[in-house]
Design the sequence.
Protein backbone atom coordinates (compact mmCIF):
# COMPACT_ATOMS: atom_id res chain seq x y z
CA UNK A 1 0.00 0.00 0.00
CA UNK A 2 1.40 3.39 -1.04
CA UNK A 3 0.28 6.73 0.40
CA UNK A 4 1.68 10.09 -0.71
CA UNK A 5 1.05 13.69 0.31
CA UNK A 6 -0.02 14.54 -3.26
CA UNK A 7 -3.00 12.16 -2.87
CA UNK A 8 -3.82 12.32 0.86
CA UNK A 9 -7.20 10.60 0.54
CA UNK A 10 -6.09 7.77 -1.77
CA UNK A 11 -4.24 4.50 -1.23
CA UNK A 12 -2.43 2.78 -4.09
CA UNK A 13 -1.89 -0.95 -4.26
CA UNK A 14 1.30 -0.62 -6.28
CA UNK A 15 3.62 1.87 -7.94
CA UNK A 16 1.95 1.56 -11.34
CA UNK A 17 -1.39 2.72 -9.94
CA UNK A 18 0.35 5.70 -8.41
CA UNK A 19 2.14 6.64 -11.64
CA UNK A 20 -1.11 6.43 -13.59
CA UNK A 21 -2.69 8.87 -11.15
CA UNK A 22 0.27 11.20 -11.58
CA UNK A 23 -0.12 11.21 -15.39
CA UNK A 24 -3.77 12.10 -15.10
CA UNK A 25 -3.21 14.95 -12.65
CA UNK A 26 0.18 16.51 -13.50
CA UNK A 27 -0.97 20.10 -13.96
CA UNK A 28 -3.46 20.03 -11.11
CA UNK A 29 -0.89 18.63 -8.70
CA UNK A 30 1.62 21.36 -9.51
CA UNK A 31 -1.03 24.05 -9.13
CA UNK A 32 -2.02 22.50 -5.81
CA UNK A 33 1.57 22.67 -4.52
CA UNK A 34 1.83 26.32 -5.55
CA UNK A 35 -1.04 27.15 -3.20
CA UNK A 36 0.77 25.62 -0.26
CA UNK A 37 2.98 27.36 2.27
CA UNK A 38 5.34 24.54 3.11
CA UNK A 39 6.08 24.59 6.82
CA UNK A 40 8.07 21.42 7.31
CA UNK A 41 10.69 19.74 5.20
CA UNK A 42 9.43 16.37 6.28
CA UNK A 43 10.87 13.00 5.39
CA UNK A 44 10.48 9.45 6.61
CA UNK A 45 13.99 8.26 7.15
CA UNK A 46 16.77 8.81 9.61
CA UNK A 47 20.14 10.28 8.77
CA UNK A 48 22.82 11.36 11.20
CA UNK A 49 25.13 14.31 11.17
CA UNK A 50 28.70 13.40 11.99
CA UNK A 51 29.19 13.74 15.74
CA UNK A 52 26.75 13.96 18.61
CA UNK A 53 24.12 16.69 18.58
CA UNK A 54 24.36 17.22 22.33
CA UNK A 55 28.11 17.78 22.19
CA UNK A 56 27.86 20.05 19.16
CA UNK A 57 25.50 22.35 21.02
CA UNK A 58 27.00 22.27 24.50
CA UNK A 59 30.62 22.66 23.42
CA UNK A 60 29.74 26.04 21.95
CA UNK A 61 27.80 27.31 24.96
CA UNK A 62 29.77 29.28 27.49
CA UNK A 63 29.18 29.02 31.23
CA UNK A 64 25.65 30.16 31.89
CA UNK A 65 25.42 33.51 33.62
CA UNK A 66 22.21 35.04 34.79
CA UNK A 67 23.02 38.47 33.40
CA UNK A 68 23.22 37.27 29.78
CA UNK A 69 20.69 39.21 27.71
CA UNK A 70 21.81 38.38 24.15
CA UNK A 71 22.85 35.19 22.37
CA UNK A 72 23.78 34.29 18.79
CA UNK A 73 22.38 30.99 17.55
CA UNK A 74 23.47 29.18 14.38
CA UNK A 75 21.21 26.41 13.07
CA UNK A 76 20.33 24.38 9.95
CA UNK A 77 17.03 25.53 8.43
CA UNK A 78 16.92 23.00 5.58
CA UNK A 79 19.18 20.46 3.90
CA UNK A 80 19.24 19.74 0.16
CA UNK A 81 19.20 16.29 -1.41
CA UNK A 82 16.61 14.82 0.97
CA UNK A 83 13.47 13.10 -0.37
CA UNK A 84 10.89 14.30 2.15
CA UNK A 85 7.31 13.39 2.97
CA UNK A 86 6.03 16.20 0.76
CA UNK A 87 7.60 14.29 -2.11
CA UNK A 88 10.18 17.07 -2.57
CA UNK A 89 13.92 17.10 -3.08
CA UNK A 90 15.54 20.51 -2.69
CA UNK A 91 18.40 20.45 -5.17
CA UNK A 92 21.79 22.12 -5.15
CA UNK A 93 21.53 25.90 -5.55
CA UNK A 94 17.94 25.98 -4.32
CA UNK A 95 18.67 28.42 -1.49
CA UNK A 96 21.22 30.72 -3.12
CA UNK A 97 18.75 33.50 -3.97
CA UNK A 98 17.02 33.35 -0.59
CA UNK A 99 20.36 33.56 1.22
CA UNK A 100 21.42 36.51 -0.95
CA UNK A 101 18.19 38.50 -0.68
CA UNK A 102 17.51 37.71 2.99
CA UNK A 103 14.75 40.27 3.41
CA UNK A 104 12.23 40.04 6.23
CA UNK A 105 13.31 36.53 7.22
CA UNK A 106 12.04 35.60 10.69
CA UNK A 107 13.17 33.15 13.35
CA UNK A 108 9.92 31.81 14.81
CA UNK A 109 8.62 29.36 17.35
CA UNK A 110 6.78 26.47 15.67
CA UNK A 111 5.80 28.40 12.50
CA UNK A 112 3.56 30.76 14.47
CA UNK A 113 3.72 34.17 12.80
CA UNK A 114 2.49 36.16 15.79
CA UNK A 115 4.35 38.83 17.73
CA UNK A 116 4.69 36.70 20.86
CA UNK A 117 6.25 33.83 18.86
CA UNK A 118 8.96 35.83 17.10
CA UNK A 119 12.33 34.73 18.44
CA UNK A 120 14.34 37.14 16.32
CA UNK A 121 14.04 39.34 13.24
CA UNK A 122 17.81 39.86 13.12
CA UNK A 123 18.80 36.82 11.06
CA UNK A 124 21.55 36.25 8.52
CA UNK A 125 21.31 33.39 6.03
CA UNK A 126 24.07 31.44 4.34
CA UNK A 127 24.46 28.31 2.25
CA UNK A 128 26.93 25.84 3.74
CA UNK A 129 27.86 22.19 3.34
CA UNK A 130 26.99 19.97 6.32
CA UNK A 131 28.12 16.35 6.35
CA UNK A 132 25.24 13.83 6.27
CA UNK A 133 25.71 10.10 5.75
CA UNK A 134 29.24 10.62 4.52
CA UNK A 135 28.34 13.28 1.96
CA UNK A 136 28.07 17.05 2.20
CA UNK A 137 24.84 18.45 0.76
CA UNK A 138 24.12 22.15 0.69
CA UNK A 139 22.17 23.44 3.67
CA UNK A 140 20.38 26.69 4.34
CA UNK A 141 21.93 27.93 7.58
CA UNK A 142 20.66 30.76 9.79
CA UNK A 143 22.64 32.88 12.24
CA UNK A 144 20.16 34.52 14.59
CA UNK A 145 20.86 37.28 17.12
CA UNK A 146 18.38 36.78 19.95
CA UNK A 147 17.54 39.21 22.75
CA UNK A 148 16.04 37.79 25.94
CA UNK A 149 13.40 40.51 26.18
CA UNK A 150 11.86 39.47 22.84
CA UNK A 151 11.16 35.86 23.78
CA UNK A 152 12.44 34.86 27.24
CA UNK A 153 11.11 31.29 27.00
CA UNK A 154 12.89 30.35 23.76
CA UNK A 155 15.95 32.34 24.81
CA UNK A 156 16.43 30.01 27.77
CA UNK A 157 15.63 26.89 25.73
CA UNK A 158 18.49 27.71 23.38
CA UNK A 159 20.83 28.48 26.26
CA UNK A 160 19.97 25.15 27.88
CA UNK A 161 20.64 23.24 24.65
CA UNK A 162 17.02 22.06 24.39
CA UNK A 163 16.34 23.18 20.80
CA UNK A 164 17.63 20.41 18.55
CA UNK A 165 15.45 20.62 15.44
CA UNK A 166 14.19 23.28 13.07
CA UNK A 167 11.86 23.61 10.08
CA UNK A 168 11.58 25.93 7.07
CA UNK A 169 8.52 27.94 6.09
CA UNK A 170 8.71 28.46 2.32
CA UNK A 171 6.88 29.09 -0.94
CA UNK A 172 7.34 27.22 -4.22
CA UNK A 173 8.18 28.99 -7.50
CA UNK A 174 6.25 27.76 -10.56
CA UNK A 175 9.04 27.59 -13.13
CA UNK A 176 11.52 26.18 -10.58
CA UNK A 177 9.45 23.15 -9.59
CA UNK A 178 9.88 20.00 -11.70
CA UNK A 179 8.01 16.71 -11.56
CA UNK A 180 10.42 13.77 -11.88
CA UNK A 181 9.10 10.28 -12.72
CA UNK A 182 11.05 7.06 -13.19
CA UNK A 183 9.01 5.81 -16.12
CA UNK A 184 9.58 4.82 -19.74
CA UNK A 185 6.00 5.65 -20.65
CA UNK A 186 5.80 7.96 -23.66
CA UNK A 187 3.62 10.41 -21.75
CA UNK A 188 6.34 10.76 -19.10
CA UNK A 189 9.22 11.68 -21.39
CA UNK A 190 9.79 15.14 -19.90
CA UNK A 191 9.41 13.88 -16.35
CA UNK A 192 11.87 11.04 -17.00
CA UNK A 193 14.44 13.56 -18.24
CA UNK A 194 13.94 15.47 -14.98
CA UNK A 195 14.40 12.24 -13.03
CA UNK A 196 17.69 11.50 -14.78
CA UNK A 197 18.88 15.06 -14.20
CA UNK A 198 18.27 15.24 -10.44
CA UNK A 199 18.22 11.64 -9.18
CA UNK A 200 21.94 11.51 -8.33
CA UNK A 201 21.48 14.36 -5.82
CA UNK A 202 19.07 12.33 -3.68
CA UNK A 203 20.55 11.07 -0.40
CA UNK A 204 17.84 8.58 0.62
CA UNK A 205 17.35 6.77 -2.69
CA UNK A 206 15.83 3.65 -1.14
CA UNK A 207 12.79 5.57 0.09
CA UNK A 208 12.46 7.40 -3.22
CA UNK A 209 12.62 4.22 -5.30
CA UNK A 210 9.62 2.81 -3.44
CA UNK A 211 7.33 5.48 -4.94
CA UNK A 212 9.18 6.21 -8.18
CA UNK A 213 8.68 9.97 -8.38
CA UNK A 214 9.56 13.25 -6.68
CA UNK A 215 9.35 17.01 -7.11
CA UNK A 216 12.70 18.70 -7.73
CA UNK A 217 12.73 22.13 -6.11
CA UNK A 218 15.34 24.14 -7.99
CA UNK A 219 14.51 27.36 -6.16
CA UNK A 220 12.25 28.29 -3.26
CA UNK A 221 11.46 31.40 -1.27
CA UNK A 222 12.12 30.87 2.43
CA UNK A 223 10.05 33.15 4.67
CA UNK A 224 11.01 31.87 8.10
CA UNK A 225 12.89 29.23 10.03
CA UNK A 226 11.26 27.77 13.12
CA UNK A 227 12.39 26.08 16.29
CA UNK A 228 10.30 22.91 16.64
CA UNK A 229 10.09 20.00 19.08
CA UNK A 230 9.74 17.28 16.45
CA UNK A 231 10.89 18.52 13.08
CA UNK A 232 9.83 16.29 10.24
CA UNK A 233 13.42 16.75 9.12
CA UNK A 234 15.26 15.65 12.23
CA UNK A 235 18.63 16.69 10.84
CA UNK A 236 18.17 20.42 11.27
CA UNK A 237 20.13 20.89 14.50
CA UNK A 238 21.31 23.85 16.47
CA UNK A 239 24.97 24.14 15.47
CA UNK A 240 26.11 26.60 18.12
CA UNK A 241 24.93 29.01 20.80
CA UNK A 242 27.21 31.92 21.70
CA UNK A 243 26.46 34.07 24.71
CA UNK A 244 27.13 37.78 24.33
CA UNK A 245 28.23 39.01 27.73
CA UNK A 246 27.07 42.43 28.78
CA UNK A 247 29.91 44.90 29.07
CA UNK A 248 29.49 47.70 31.59
CA UNK A 249 28.70 50.93 29.88
CA UNK A 250 31.38 53.58 30.17
CA UNK A 251 30.22 56.99 31.23
CA UNK A 252 30.45 59.62 28.54
CA UNK A 253 29.87 62.49 30.99
CA UNK A 254 32.55 65.20 30.82
CA UNK A 255 33.26 67.39 33.84
CA UNK A 256 34.14 70.92 32.81
CA UNK A 257 36.05 73.02 35.29
CA UNK A 258 34.85 76.65 35.45
CA UNK A 259 37.23 79.34 34.20
CA UNK A 260 39.11 81.60 36.64
CA UNK A 261 36.83 84.53 35.80
CA UNK A 262 33.77 82.44 36.53
CA UNK A 263 35.20 81.30 39.86
CA UNK A 264 35.88 84.94 40.88
CA UNK A 265 32.34 85.93 39.90
CA UNK A 266 30.84 83.09 41.97
CA UNK A 267 32.99 84.09 44.93
CA UNK A 268 31.76 87.70 44.74
CA UNK A 269 28.13 86.57 44.58
CA UNK A 270 28.59 84.31 47.60
CA UNK A 271 30.06 87.18 49.62
CA UNK A 272 27.23 89.58 48.86
CA UNK A 273 24.93 90.31 51.74
CA UNK A 274 21.37 91.00 50.82
Sequence:
Amino acid sequence: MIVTKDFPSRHFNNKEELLNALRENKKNLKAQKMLQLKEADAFNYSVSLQGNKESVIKNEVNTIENNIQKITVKFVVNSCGVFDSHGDVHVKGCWNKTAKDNKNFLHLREHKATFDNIISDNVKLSVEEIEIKGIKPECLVATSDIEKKDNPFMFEKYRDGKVKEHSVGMQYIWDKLFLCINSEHEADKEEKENWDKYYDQVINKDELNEVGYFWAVAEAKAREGSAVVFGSNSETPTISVEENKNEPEQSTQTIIEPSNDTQKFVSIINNLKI
